[in-house]
Amino acid sequence: MSGPVVVVAPLPQVLPRGRERVELQRDHARRAVRASATAQQSPIAELRKNADDVPQASRGWHWSLSHSPARVAGAVWSTSIGIDVEERREVRPDLVDRILNADELALFAARGEDGFLRTWTGKEALLKEFGVGLQALSRCRIVRVGASELEMRFDTLVRVVHQRIFDDHVVSVCTADGRVPSFVVHTQPLEARREVAS
Ligand SMILES: CC(C)(COP(=O)(O)OP(=O)(O)OC[C@H]1O[C@@H](n2cnc3c(N)ncnc32)[C@H](O)[C@@H]1OP(=O)(O)O)[C@@H](O)C(=O)NCCC(=O)NCCS
Which of 41, 79, 116, 144 is the most buried (most CB within 10 A)? Predict the structure, then answer.
């Protein structure tokens, strides 16, 4: 059976600064979530979070989103879900050491990959699916690396994180049921939803 529809879109090229920029990124990420809901005929209502910032399910539908400097990604799904999108960039060696352990580095090296962005987004997606923050990073571990998926453990729980790998960015998706997502990749920023007058 098919998995969640994950919507990925660029942000506008010219962005405001400071607080306004953050608000615009968050707004576009929510457009991606809404577009995913429409594609899946999900009746999800408000996109509410709890006091710890964790997205709360509505009408049985879970949601997750991510904003990076240049794009957003979002989706709804019938089980818990976590999404992360990140662009390629220069990284400091100490950050690599913090994100990837020696065994994980070896798994990627065997494939001729550095693995940084796949690991970064994979662990973020896993943490988000469990609704926990970065303090739980050491509980995430990669045990197998495939062409477009990572088999991971969160403590003793197993997850397959599915990934869409582009030249300059990676999108990772983790769900409790492990279904393979489909990706709808927009080349233009998402437009605001038109409210229908009742
Ligand atoms: C907050 C965190 C969950 C994600 O932060 P991020 O990658 O910087 O930001 P993203 O845009 O990808 O995701 C932010 C969204 O995640 C959601 N979110 C926040 N906390 C969450 C949690 N505990 N569980 C699930 N989702 C969460 C929110 O919807 C938030 O967006 P909003 O504030 O607009 O609603 C956390 O993992 C973090 O602080 N990361 C910092 C980056 C880092 O060092 N990563 C290490 C790589 S493993």
Answer: 116
